[in-house]
Write a structure and sequence with these properties.
Elements (H helix, E strand, L loop, with lengths): L1 E4 L4 H13 L5 E3 L10 H6 L7 E3 L5 E3 L1 H11 L10 H27 L14 H21 L13 H12 L12 H12 L6
Helix pairs in contact: 1-3, 1-6, 4-5, 4-6, 5-7
Amino acid sequence: MKLYEDQRAPNPRRVRIFLAEKGIEVPRQQVDIMSEEHKDPAIANLNPFTRLPILELDDGRVICESLAICRYFEAVQPEPRLFGTDAFDQAMVEMWQRRVELMLFMPVSYAFRHSHPRMARLEVPQVKEWAEANLARIPGMLDYFDGELGQRPYIAGDRFSVADITALCAVDFMKLVRLSLGEGHANLRRWHAEASARPSASA
């Protein structure tokens, strides 16, 4: 088994945090996106979209996409349950994971990919207006999630879940688009401090 990743990218980080929470060790191979190593034919043979992370199993089968990889490991080793416990809890984790990904993680990613000079040769076409449109959405989403975190300790409820992993990676990734949590985000800052203090956050 081997996990192909770029140590600096947010999507592979989601998988690393997930594995650390599970206490699972997987051999990793670094692929430098900025040097365009992810476009190598060997990577394209594993994932035609040349995106990371990629999990190659011992029998040669391949799983791509961060959440798909996390779901595989959740099934292999259920505890601690990061995708929820009973049917309702699983639905809540899925709902909040999806909301965080669509409303915060992706806008931060688009703002970075379509504005940073070093991404120009990787994001073709790089659309400045798309970066600006997504950047403008982020403060409102931070306000929204701050309000939700005033009602419960974690993104999806009373337990740390994959939704918190996605949110942590999104908030930390904001520094690359020169955004940070504000004084008005007391609940988010409380949650972020607690999530960042977990040993898995430094995986």
